[in-house]
Write a structure and sequence with these properties.
The protein is built from 5 helices and 6 strands. Helix content is 37%, strand content 15%. The protein has 2 domains: 77 residues, no CATH class; 93 residues, Metalloproteases ("zincins"), catalytic domain (Zincin-like, 2-Layer Sandwich). It is of the alpha/beta class. The structure holds zinc ion. The site of zinc ion (ZN) has 6 residues, from helix 3.
C-alpha cells in the first residue's frame, strides 16, 4: 500500500511538548527538523572540544563549560550543519532499516506491528513504501535514501501501521497521529513529487 499522500487526510499537526532548553539555537533558522529541540550541555571536563549527536527527537550539543554565549551560538550552528551533512550522506542498509522499524513499532504501536522483513527496493518509483500484510513484508523505495531521517521514519511508520490496519481510513490516520512528524513528512514528500513536475529552470551559473 502506497505511502503517497492521499486526499482526505485531516490529521493533527505535530504539536509536541518540547520541554528541553532551546538555548543558543533559538535565534537561528532551524536546520534540524523544526520539531526537534537542541539541548546544549556544558561540561567542565571539556576544555576545547565540541561534539553533537541526536538523541531521539533531540540534538545534544556538548560544549566546554567556559564557552561564551556567542561562541555557543556559533558552535551550535556549526554542529547542526555538520550533523545534517553527515545524515544526508548516510545510507543505511536493510539490517538497520529492520532495526529502525522495530524501534518505531515499539515507540508508536507498543510493538504490535511486527514485520517479517523490511528492505530497500529499487523497482518502486511511484510509491515510497509498500507492504504485504499477509507476508509481513515491508519495502521502501531507494528514492528515500538521502532524505531526512524523519521522512524515512514516517514511511516506515506508515507501512508498519498497515500491518495493523489496511487501507487509508480514519482508523489508519488515527494510528499515524502517534508519529509527531506525520504531517511534516507528508509535506516533504509532496514537495518532492511537485518538484519533479515543475518546469526545469535554467541552472544557476556558478561563481
Ligand atoms: Zn498506505
Amino acid at each position: 500500500m502506497p505511502a503517497d499522500p492521499s486526499p482526505g487526510f485531516a490529521g493533527e499537526t505535530s504539536t509536541r511538548s518540547a520541554g528541553t532548553q532551546q538555548r543558543g539555537a533559538a535565534d537561528r533558522p532551524p536546520r534540524a527538523p523544526a520539531t526537534s529541540a537542541v539541548e546544549v550541555r556544558r561540561s567542565n571536563r571539556r576544555s576545547r572540544t565540541v561534539s553533537a549527536y541526536r538523541e531521539g527527537d533531540r540534538t545534544i550539543v556538548l560544549i566546554p563549560a567556559r564557552m561564551s554565549e556567542a561562541e555557543e551560538r556559533r558552535w551550535v550552528g556549526v554542529m547542526l550543519d555538520k550533523l545534517a551533512a553527515q545524515e544526508s550522506k548516510r545510507v543505511f542498509g536493510d539490517g538497520e532499516l529492520a532495526e529502525r522499524a522495530e524501534r518505531l513499532s515499539a515507540q508508536y504501536f507498543e510493538g504490535r506491528a511486527r514485520p517479517a522483513s523490511v528492505r530497500w527496493v529499487t523497482n518502486q518509483n511511484t510509491r515510497w513504501g509498500s507492504c504485504t500484510p499477509a507476508e509481513g513484508s515491508i519495502r521502501l523505495s531507494h528514492r528515500l535514501q538521502g532524505m531526512p531521517e524523519y521522512v524515512v521514519d514516517y514511511v516506515l511508520v506508515h507501512e508498519l501501521a498497515h500491518l495493523l490496519v489496511p487501507g487509508h481510513g480514519p482508523r489508519f490516520w488515527r494510528l499515524l497521529e502517534a508519529y509527531p512528524r506525520t504531517e511534516r513528512a507528508r509535506g516533504y514528500l509532496e514537495g518532492v513529487v511537485a518538484a519533479d513536475r515543475l518546469p526545469h529552470l535554467p541552472a544557476a551559473r556558478g561563481e
